[in-house]
Every structure is written in structure tokens, then in C-alpha cells.
TrEMBL record, chain A:
Pfam families: Mpp10. The lineage of its organism: Eukaryota, Viridiplantae, Streptophyta, Embryophyta, Tracheophyta. Residues 114-154, 197-234, 257-272 have a biased composition (Acidic residues). InterPro entries: Mpp10 (IPR012173). GO terms for molecular function: mRNA binding. Involved in nucleolar processing of pre-18S ribosomal RNA. Coiled coil: none annotated. GO terms for cellular component: Mpp10 complex; small-subunit processome; sno(s)RNA-containing ribonucleoprotein complex. Residues 103-113, 181-196, 273-292, 374-386 have a biased composition (Basic and acidic residues). The keyword Nucleus applies. One of its GO terms (biological process) is rRNA processing. It is found in: Nucleus, Nucleolus. This is U3 small nucleolar ribonucleoprotein protein MPP10.
UniProtKB/TrEMBL annotation, chain B:
It comes from the Eukaryota. Pfam families: KH_PNO1_2nd. SMART domains: KH. This is K Homology domain-containing protein. The keyword Cell membrane does not apply. The lineage of its organism: Eukaryota, Viridiplantae, Streptophyta, Embryophyta, Tracheophyta. Residues 1-32 are annotated as: Disordered. It is found in: Nucleus, Nucleolus. Belongs to the PNO1 family. Residues 99-172 form the K Homology domain. Residues 17-26 have a biased composition (Polar residues). GO terms for cellular component: nucleolus; nucleus. It comes from Vitis vinifera. Keywords: Nucleus, RNA-binding.
Length: 533, 194
């Protein structure tokens, strides 16, 4: 224990320079504290704090490991004690009182706790339960602070009951503010501090602001406030908060004019409700309202208008960046660009897909140009040496000029002729298919000899079945000469004669063939010679 | 150079001296094929022709039965054209048609070019395988001979002009395509006139 005291007693500047003695003392103190806490931390892996050869970070880690479960267990205990305050007095009893006397902080806490008690009466019923517990709660907190180097009491999270913690924060905030007030009051002694207190009380009611206060609490330096207001805390009276009694009546008049909520805000932690003796009638209240409004309007009319009401205002005439706060109305001449949302893109994509499926791409099609005149015959540039001599060319030209009939058929003319022939044939066929009155093929007279047709075409009354071809007489059909005899009709002499002719013919053929073969076998010169000759 | 005499008797020989090429070499000797030309000149033109090797001259002479004295001039022109380099078939046109002329000019008359530029200009004039030259010939009904830096054009007056313009634009540097398009336009206009 004495090590701890020694640490406490060392002057702050001594800590600035590293001294081995101080570090040894510190380590010993830490070890002592660690050991004293050991019974409360059953799950701690360390039996004792290991300080030999360990640096500050490692020692701190050990402490941290041990203290984490202790903190949570303490919290649970505090909650338990909240609900059962009798246990505290049982367990701690005298010990607690002694501690209270020792710590200056706790003395100071009692005073604001009275105020808190008064204040919470106005609030929800849930908080009233807490009034009794608040004292103990605060004490518990102070005790826990002793064990740990620091404790974060913002109460923003980790608490079992949110409200509980917030109210804790509220109280601390109150303390701090009041300390500040006392400090201020000692300097000024005016109503400014009171008004601050009123404003702060107003805020406290709003739950939203509670967390802000918690943050603010962290910012406050509790020590400073405590030190300043320490001496004057014992003599807190009504006057300290709300000034001399005569001011109250003045204020009460003012508050009557304000809204009910404001009134209730101001009444929070003071006994002002008792001091308001006047009760205004409805008519008077209305009149007061109207009068206040009139006063307000007159005041507004007297002073100059805001820049937004002043017509044309340049940048110099209005405060900086004030145009940003005002909702200005612009005339938009152009349509605003389309906001691309998912639906828009989805619709576009659907359209694209549909078009692709249909194959309808809205391609630009060239408008067909009407043929104004017949296409000119373009003479191709001939890059070969001309086959005709120059004389011939001029000759042709001359002939063309003089004799227009014999225009030489150019290549294109021939092609044209061929094309026209083909087209005529095609037209004939189509006409045969389509026209009601069919016009037959035009007869092209050409002189050609037709054989085996009678010179005279006499109309013969013959049945339809008989064709013209069959109308030929037998002797017209017959080809041959002389008298033809059947095989049986031939006489002996004729048979012999026939055979002899046959033999003669055959012999002639064979000799001719043989001669031909002989000729081919000989040299070519003979042939040539023959030719030459 | 020539004296006109009635063809009653063979009095005077009309000697015509041809300007020899500066190089001093002989022009190509006529092949067998231009027998026709001789026929022409002797057959119809009725002009006698001979080559004086010693004096390096070609000599032409009218005969007694020369129908027209201008034939001599025609034959002279024919031989001249042949010497320049035109083919016989093309040169015969001179004999047959009156209004054909030969025009010559040099590249340096159009634009002074030296060395590689000159070679490139000549190449541009003839084109690849002579196609540009043939194109101009066919389009304008002329005949062109490009002899190193000298250019000779044979044809009628207006056609010579067109061909000359095309050749000059080629010498000055325009690409062949441009020349073709101009030619096409001009000849189309010419053709439309008839």
C-alpha cells in the first residue's frame, strides 16, 4: 500500500524524466493492486503481475486482461444494488460512509443529486424509482473508479438499461454544468448562469440530446469544475439558481406569454410553479397573444427587410454564402437531362432486344433518284496499243460523218440487240400466260426450203383424225426406184444377177480398202508429191 | 529545196535533204513490210524515192505522171514522220489525209527538269508498259512518239492540242488518273458535238 501512496505523493514534474526508482515503485504498486484484485478475478490466467523484464505495454496488457471481467462483474453488481439498495448498506455500511467523507467528489455529488431528485419528479415515473438508487449508483461508480486507472462513464453503450446509463450521464453532465455555473456565478454573480442552467435543463428533457450530453461530458474536464466550485457548494440556495425572488415574478410574467412547453421547461428543477399566483382568463390570454404578435410584427416592419425580400440583390449586399441556404427559383430554358434510372435502362434494353429480333433497324435508305435522262454511254479508256492504224481510224470517222447509214455496230449496240431479243422472247411467253387476247408470235419471214410438202395445199375434206402428213399419196412417200419384187417373185436369172452385183460391189470395196492401207503405209512425200503435182 | 517542173521530161532531180538525227546514226532501215508505203508513194503518189548513203540523204523526186505536186510534200512529211519514229501504218495516214500534222516539242520547253526528275517525267509520260501513252493515243486519235526528251505528236490539229495538253500536265507532275479524267471529259464533249 505504501508504494501506492508514494506514487501518489510524487510531484508531477518528476514523472517527466525517467528514473528507475520511480519505475520500480510503480511496478511494485501495480503488483500490489493486481494482487488485491486477484480474488475478484477468478478467470485470470496470471497469479501475480509479472513485472521483471517486461515493458510497460506488456504490464498494461496483463492488467487489462485481469480487469476486463472485473469491470463487467462490477457493473452487474451495481445493477443488482440498484434494485436492492438494502444489500449495500448491509455489505458496505460504515465503510461506505467513511469513503464518502474521504472523497471530496462524493460530497459534491450529494448536492446535485438533490437537484436531480427534484428534477426527475417532473419526469416519467420510471425515473422516480431511480432517485434513491442514483446516490448509490454514483458511489458505486466512484468506487470502481478507484480500482481502475480510468473508467469510461459515457454510458453510450454496453449498459443493461439504456435509460439508466443515460440518466447517469445526465447527472454527471448536470454536475459539471453546475460546477461551471458556480464558478461563473462567483465571478459574475448574475443571472446569466441561471439562464444557462435553464437552457441546459430544457435540453436535458429531450432524449436525443442525452447522447450529446454524454459526448460533452467527455469533453468536460470534471476536475476543473470541481476545483472551482468546491468551496461554494455547501451554500447552495434558491437564490443561487434563480436569482433574488423579485426576478422570479418578472420571469413568471414573461413565461406566461410563452408557450406551455417553454413554461414547463423552465419549471423543471425549480419551485417556480408555486410562485405563479396570477391565473389569466381566456380572453386575457388571447389578448396577450395578439399583443405579442402585434409587437413582433411592428418590430419586424421597423427594421430593414431580409435580403431575400429586397428585390435585386447583388453579392455584396447579402451575407456570404447566403444564397446557398435559400431555395432559389431559376427559369430553365432547356429540358433537364434525363435521369438514368434502372427502369430507364431496362426499358431501353428491352426496346433494343425487340428491334434486334424483328430486324427493324431504321436504316437510312437512299431515296431512288429519278432518271432525268438516259445514261450516257461512257467510252472506256483503252490502255492497249490500238490495233487499227491512224489512217484507218480517220477513215472510219470520215465515213461515219459522211454516210450516216453505215454506222458501225459498236459493242454496246450488239449487246443491246441481244438484250432486246431476249426480252422479246420473255414478253411473248408472259403474254401467253397473262393476256385474255393472246397475240401470237410475230412471223419472221425467212426463206427456207421445206421438203416433202405438197406444192399445192388443197383443202381436203378428210376426217379430223387424219393428219396432213398422212394425206400424202403412197407414191409421194415411196422412195426407191423401179419395180420392186418380193423375194419369192424373183426368177433364177434375177437372183443370179443380184448375187453377181453383190460380189462385184464387195470386191470393189475390198480392193479400195487395201489400196488405201497401202497408201497410208508409204512416206508422206508421196502424198505431198501428189499434191504438188 | 524543191523545184516544181512540169512532168514532161525528167529534167531536174528534186533533192530533199532530211535533217539527220544529231547522234549521227542512221534511222532504222525500212523493213520489208513497208513495201506498201513504197507502193503508195510510187503507186499512187507517183513519187520516186531513194537513199543517198554517201551524202546521208533521202531523196524524193516527182515523176512525169505525178498528179499533184503537193504529193511531194506529202511524201516528204511521210518520210519525216517515219524518221521521227512513227510506224508506217500511222505515217501512211499523212499521205491519205490532208489535215494531219506532226508536232514536236521538248520536255525542257515545258519545264526544266534535271537528272532523276527528268527520268521520272519520261516515265510518267509513257506509264507502265506504255499504257498512259496508249490511253492518250486512243482517246484523242493521235499517235505519240516519246524519243528521250523529245516528244512528237501526229494527228489532226484539235486532237494534237488535246494530246499536248495532257502530256504537258503529265510533265508538270499531275498523276495519270487526273489526266485520264480530263481526257474523258474532253473527248466526251468532242463526241457529243457529232
Amino acid at each position: 500500500m505504501d508504494t501506492v501512496h508514494r506514487l501518489k505523493s510524487t510531484e508531477p514534474p518528476l514523472w517527466l524524466s525517467p528514473s528507475s526508482e520511480l519505475s520500480q515503485t510503480a511496478r511494485a504498486a501495480s503488483q500490489h493492486l493486481f494482487a488485491s484484485l486477484k480474488p475478484f478475478a477468478p478467470k485470470s490466467p496470471f497469479d501475480r503481475l509479472l513485472v521483471d523484464g517486461f515493458d510497460a505495454e506488456q504490464i498494461w496488457q496483463q492488467i487489462d486482461i485481469q480487469s476486463q471481467p472485473i469491470i463487467s462483474s462490477l457493473r452487474r453488481q451495481i445493477n443488482r444494488f440498484e434494485k436492492n439498495p438494502e444489500e449495500i448498506s448491509k455489505i458496505f455500511g460504515r465503510k461506505k460512509v467513511r469513503r464518502v467523507e474521504e472523497k471530496v467528489r462524493e460530497v459534491e455529488q450529494k448536492v446535485p443529486e438533490e437537484e436531480i431528485g427534484g428534477f426527475s419528479e417532473e419526469e416519467d415515473e420510471d425515473l422516480e424509482e431511480f432517485d434513491e438508487d442514483s446516490e448509490e449508483g454514483e458511489d458505486e461508480e466512484r468506487e470502481s473508479e478507484e480500482d481502475e486507472a480510468e473508467d469510461n462513464e459515457d454510458g453510450g453503450g454496453g449498459g443493461i438499461e439504456d435509460r439508466f446509463l443515460k440518466i447517469k450521464g445526465l447527472e454527471e453532465y448536470l454536475e459539471a454544468e453546475e460546477d461551471r455555473e458556480y464558478g461563473l456565478k462567483n465571478k459574475k454573480g448574475g443571472s446569466d448562469a441561471l439562464k444557462d442552467g435553464e437552457d441546459e435543463n430544457e435540453d436535458e428533457e429531450e432524449e436525443e440530446e442525452e447522447e450529446e450530453e454524454d459526448d460533452e461530458l467527455g469533453a468536460f474536464d470534471l476536475d476543473d469544475g470541481e476545483n472551482e466550485g468546491m468551496d461554494e457548494l455547501d451554500d447552495i440556495k434558491y437564490e443561487d439558481f434563480f436569482g433574488p425572488k423579485r426576478k422570479v415574478s418578472k420571469k413568471s410574467k414573461l413565461t406566461d406569454g410563452l408557450e406551455d412547453s417553454d413554461r414547463s421547461d423552465e419549471q423543471e428543477d425549480d419551485q417556480a410553479t408555486d410562485n405563479k399566483n396570477k391565473v389569466l382568463s381566456t380572453h386575457e390570454k388571447e389578448r396577450e397573444n395578439v399583443r405579442a404578435k402585434i409587437e413582433e410584427m411592428e418590430r419586424a416592419n421597423l427594421e430593414s427587410k431580409t435580403w431575400t425580400m429586397q428585390g435585386e440583390v447583388t453579392a455584396a449586399k447579402r451575407p456570404k454564402n447566403s444564397a446557398l441556404e435559400v431555395d432559389l427559383d431559376f427559369e430553365h430554358n432547356v429540358r433537364p437531362p434525363p435521369v438514368i434510372t434502372e427502369e430507364v435502362t431496362a426499358s431501353l434494353e428491352d426496346l433494343i432486344q425487340k428491334r434486334i429480333l424483328e430486324g427493324r433497324f431504321d436504316d437510312v435508305q437512299k431515296a431512288p433518284r429519278l432518271p432525268s435522262k438516259a445514261p450516257k454511254e461512257v467510252k472506256e479508256m483503252d490502255e492497249n496499243k490500238s490495233k487499227k492504224g491512224l489512217a484507218e481510224i480517220y477513215e472510219e470517222e470520215f465515213v461515219q460523218k459522211t454516210n450516216l447509214d453505215s454506222a458501225p455496230l459498236s459493242f454496246s449496240d450488239e449487246q443491246r440487240k441481244e438484250a432486246s431479243m431476249l426480252f422479246k422472247k420473255l414478253c411473248l411467253k408472259l403474254d401467253a400466260l397473262s393476256h385474255f387476247h393472246f397475240t401470237p408470235k410475230p412471223v419472221i419471214d425467212d426463206m427456207s426450203i421445206q421438203t416433202n410438202v405438197p406444192a399445192l395445199a388443197m383443202e381436203e375434206i378428210a376426217p379430223l383424225a387424219v393428219s396432213d402428213a398422212a394425206m400424202l399419196a403412197p407414191e409421194e412417200v415411196f422412195e426407191g426406184k423401179g419395180d420392186i419384187k418380193e423375194e419369192a417373185e424373183l426368177t433364177q436369172a434375177e437372183r443370179k444377177r443380184r448375187r453377181a452385183n453383190k460380189k462385184r460391189k464387195f470386191k470393189a470395196n475390198t480392193t479400195k480398202r487395201a489400196a488405201k492401207k497401202a497408201q497410208d503405209g508409204t512416206l508422206q512425200n508421196n502424198k505431198e508429191g501428189k499434191e504438188e503435182a | 529545196m524543191q523545184s516544181n517542173e512540169p512532168a514532161t521530161s525528167m529534167e531536174v532531180e528534186n533533192v530533199l535533204s532530211e535533217p539527220n538525227p544529231t547522234s549521227g546514226t542512221f534511222p532504222s532501215k525500212p523493213k520489208f513490210e513497208p513495201l506498201k508505203a513504197h507502193e503508195m508513194s510510187e503507186g499512187r503518189m507517183k513519187i520516186d524515192i531513194r537513199m543517198n548513203l554517201k551524202a546521208r540523204k533521202v531523196e524524193l523526186k516527182t515523176r512525169a505522171d505525178t498528179p499533184d505536186i503537193s504529193n511531194l510534200q506529202k511524201c516528204t512529211d511521210f518520210v519525216h514522220a517515219f524518221m521521227l519514229g512513227f510506224g508506217v501504218v500511222d505515217a501512211i495516214a499523212l499521205l491519205r489525209l490532208d489535215e494531219l500534222y506532226v508536232e514536236s516539242f521538248e520536255i525542257k520547253d515545258v519545264k526544266t527538269l534535271r537528272g532523276e526528275h527528268l527520268s521520272r517525267a519520261i516515265g510518267r509520260l509513257s506509264g507502265k508498259g506504255g499504257k498512259t501513252k496508249f490511253a492518250i493515243e486512243n482517246a484523242t486519235r493521235t499517235r505519240i512518239v516519246i524519243a528521250d526528251t523529245k516528244i512528237h505528236i501526229l494527228g489532226s490539229f484539235s486532237n494534237i492540242k488535246i494530246a499536248r495538253d495532257s502530256l504537258c500536265s503529265l510533265i508538270l507532275g499531275s498523276p495519270a488518273g487526273k489526266v485520264y479524267s480530263k481526257l474523258r471529259a474532253v473527248t466526251a464533249r468532242l463526241a457529243e458535238r457529232f
